[in-house]
Amino acid sequence: MDLDYGMLGGNRPYYRFGDTDGDPLLVVPGLSDAFQRGAPKRSTAMMLTGLFPEFADRDVWVVGRRRHIPVGSSTRDMAAGYATVIDEQELWPVDVVGVSMGGLIAQYLAADYADYVGSVAIVSAGSRLGGHGENVIKQWRNWAGKGKWTDVLADTVREAATGAGQTVVPPLVEFAGRFTDLRPAVPADVVVSCTACLEHDSRDVLGDISTPTLVAAGDADRLFPEPRLRELKDGIDDSTLALFRGVGHDLMTEETKPLNGIVRRYLEGFRGDGLYP
Q1: How far apart are CA 95 and CA 117, in angstroms?
Q2: Under 8 Å CB-to-CB from 233, ≥6 apart: which residues?
Q3: Has keyword Hydrolase (predicted)?
Q4: Could you read off the pLDDT of 121-154 as tens digits, one per residue?
């Protein structure tokens, strides 16, 4: 498997793996992208290849947001940045998988740059945050502004995980924070990203999305509750909802294999019965 990683244009992290002669697949990561503490590294690249083994025959690009995001940037502005990447790397038409905040960005990418996009899978994201999600992201933004990185990172696990992960992992993060500097490479990017998530509301453009769109999420997601997921699905003409019962926001890592199987079959054009959990 080919493996490449670095910074596009010197300021945008990327990881590339799989078969470079295969059909391109663009993965837009979630808010965690803003929490990265250094340059892209091989260990992260290897972790990502393990997260997407079902796509080993495709040319997979995991591309983050630019470092030093301009203050006031919206998810729509960020989608324009991804359109530039697609154009410069000649990936069009590209299938897109947007996860959490990446799913918010993918909505505008599909609405505004339809010629660049084949099919879209929006994972763990709705048309907008739910009420609890808004309160949580505001708290994260507040902590980030005060440099309370341990508090932010521990709480991201509490809100995203289900089961034992909610109670076991946060204390480990808090313990690590006593001995390790958890500050991200560009702290201001976390604040800007949180604000972009809070202000995201795509309801007025969902009708412009003509790209086949899969909405995949857990019905126990506390950031994007089921009504927000259905609002997204219902607003897009050619769309399908795959709802995982009893799973929270961290669908990508908690149900990796079944999720990837569903996403792959959807991107390949299968829309029949038996596709969804």
Answers
A1: 6
A2: 215, 239, 240, 241
A3: yes
A4: 999 999 999 999 999 999 999 999 999 999 999 9
For domain 2-129+201-267, give the CATH number.
3.40.50.1820
Q: Which residue do the tokens 């500097």 mark? A: 181
- Token pair for 127: 């048309």
ω before 184 within 30° of 0 (cis)?
no
Query: Model pTM greater than 0.90?
Result: yes
**Would you state the structure tokens that stand for residue 232, as one six-digit string?**
């997204």
Domain map of the chain by residue range?
A: 2-129+201-267, 132-189
Query: How deeply is 205 buried, as exposed, middle or buried, from its count of CB atoms within 10 A (0-12, 13-18, 19+)?
Result: middle
Residue 74 DSSP label: -
Distance from C-alpha of 61 to C-alpha of 5, rounded to nearest angstrom: 9
Position of tokens 């508090």?
151
Cβ–Cβ < 8 Å for 114, 171: no
